[in-house]
Specification:
The protein contains 8 helices and 8 strands, in the order αββββββαββαααααα. Strand 4 (52-58) and strand 5 form a beta hairpin. It has helices spanning 13-19, 77-82, 103-113, 119-143, 146-156, 158-163, 166-173, 177-188; strands spanning 23-28, 33-35, 43-49, 52-58, 61-68, 73-74, 89-92, 96-102. The protein is globular. The protein is an alpha+beta fold. The chain has a domain at 2-117: Jelly Rolls (Sandwich). The two termini are 34 Å apart. This is Crp/Fnr family transcriptional regulator. Residues 28-111 form the Cyclic nucleotide-binding domain. InterPro entries: cNMP-bd_dom, cNMP-bd_dom_sf, RmlC-like_jellyroll. It comes from Mucilaginibacter gynuensis.
Length: 194
């Protein structure tokens, strides 16, 4: 959601103020689904407080795709744009406060923003940042071992290690919780390096 970039683009604050009454503010306990896999996404989501994850059902086993935190936005984008069932579930993993902006109002907001000076460049930078991140994640999952992915996570995104439960981190890395414990044990003994 575009509002996650308010700090980088302060002129978005006037849009936030204008669109705030059109958003649903929800206080949600941990493990609350914001969107179910297979349902068409109708909202852009902005996180004021808390942590959410996206995951899909992999033959009865949950596979975590990504984590999102304060001041980040998300949606099941393909579902949201193309009116197709979402390939994954969006769920809170901490007590969270989220804002939901309907598709109608999100499109209206984007249409208004197209008249802003430098909006296209800003939007391209935002999109490039996300695509670069996801491409890196995809390549890492193919190329790197679970140990390398854990070390990268520890070095580049330590807040995930600090805030997210081990079972979700294991699911994100594509390993069992037992395997994750072994990785952490090797790291504690100094037997694991980049």
């Amino acid at each position: 959601m575009i509002f996650q970039f308010q700090k980088q683009f302060p002129h978005l604050n006037s849009y936030w103020d204008r669109y705030l009454p059109l958003q649903k503010r929800l206080e949600m306990p941990a493990r609350t689904k914001v969107l179910d896999e297979g349902i068409i996404s109708q909202y852009a989501i902005y996180i004021e407080k808390g942590c959410l994850r996206t995951y899909f059902n992999n033959n009865g086993k949950e596979t975590t795709v990504q984590f999102f935190f304060e001041e980040e936005g998300l949606s099941s984008l393909d579902s949201f744009i193309n009116n197709i069932p979402s390939p994954y579930t969006i769920e809170t993993i901490e007590p969270s406060v989220v804002y939901l902006l309907s598709k109608k109002h999100a499109i209206q907001l984007l249409e208004e923003l197209t008249h802003e000076k430098d909006f296209v460049m800003m939007f391209m930078k935002i999109t490039a940042r996300r695509l670069t991140h996801y491409s890196g994640e995809f390549i890492s999952f193919i190329r790197d071992t679970p140990e390398q992915r854990y070390l990268r996570l520890l070095n580049e995104r330590p807040h995930i290690i600090q805030r997210v439960s081990q079972r979700y981190i294991a699911s994100y890395l594509g390993v069992s919780t037992v395997h994750l414990s072994r990785i952490k044990s090797k790291l504690a003994k100094g037997n694991l390096h980049f």
